Amino acid sequence: MRTVILGGGFAGMSALNQNRSAVVIDSKEYFLLTHRLVDVIETGNPSLAAIPYPRGVIRSKVVGIDFKSKVVKTTSGIYSYDKLIIALGYEQDATKIRGNVQKLETLEDALEIRSKLPKIKSVAVLGGGTLGVELAGALRGMGKEVHLIEAQERLLSFMTKESSQFAESRLREMGVNVHLGTKVESFNAGILTTTKGEFKAEMAIMAVGFRGPKLIEDLGLTNKNGRMVVDDYLMSVDHEDVFGAGDSMTTKGFVPMSAQVAVQSGKLAMSNAMGGSEKFQYKQVAIVLRIGSEYFGDFMGKFVRGSMAELAKRVGIYKAVRMVESI
User: Fold this and answer.
1) Domains (range + CATH), the chain
2) pTM over 0.90
3) How far is CA 157 from the centre of its chain?
4) How far apart are CA 305 and CA 297, in angstroms?
5) Nearest CA to 251 among 260, 241, 259, 261?
6) Residue 187 contacts residue 101 (beta carbons within 8 Å)
7) pLDDT tens per residue, range 103-138
């Protein structure tokens, strides 16, 4: 049986670890540690977030899928499959904000931001999730004036209140201007227009707007915000020989976008594609952030900070690297 995996991120590599004979197709030459993009902005070192793919990963861009004939069409040719796992990750949608907003989706985005910072004194970070909080702290540590804009009434709204309060307190202590309950409308000519007034900034960086790849919609697959809808077994609701994993899929309920969930879903998608019948139940063990040199977050649903949080963060990075290098 020939299994093809589209996407070599956390979900794709996790699936490949379950079946080393599968074919992986990805448009990049490297595995991207997305949660280290802020580190790249701080240091300018792309190797912190990019790990070369093992031999055998096909570098090509998917341009279409013929589900009836079971073939994937790419820029380098056509690949047939018996089972297909779609694990194409996420994209950022900046269309809801008028003006020139900088995305932070790829390694190239991080390096572009890094290259512009020497000429910039003030930055607006749009979104107070994990990416936005870490980015705001990093930029402030680099001496920039920072506005952190969050539409909810607290930062890290999906985490414990202790993590939320710690993040806000620490950022404010550093001098970050935190704006809660505030929605961004536009960014033009150095002016950020929000529902609570205007702010001056030389650059606006998106840390929100994550959705599934546009390709999912283009393929005509049932989707929610661009994320392919799958059943409890991660099988596409449209095609029984197609499975979804990672950020590019969701169930009829809700599946969070995270590396942990992507790894879990990639493993199970491959297992079920190979004949298994296990229902998907994700588990968020740890969500850990860094502001400056301080690590904190939620571990097993409880607030942690300091050495325990740092250890959890480093273990997560180590496991991701090993997942790729062991193939």
Assistant:
1) 3-90+212-273 (3.50.50.60), 98-206 (3.50.50.60), 286-325 (no CATH)
2) yes
3) 17
4) 6
5) 261
6) yes
7) 999 999 999 999 999 999 999 999 999 999 999 999
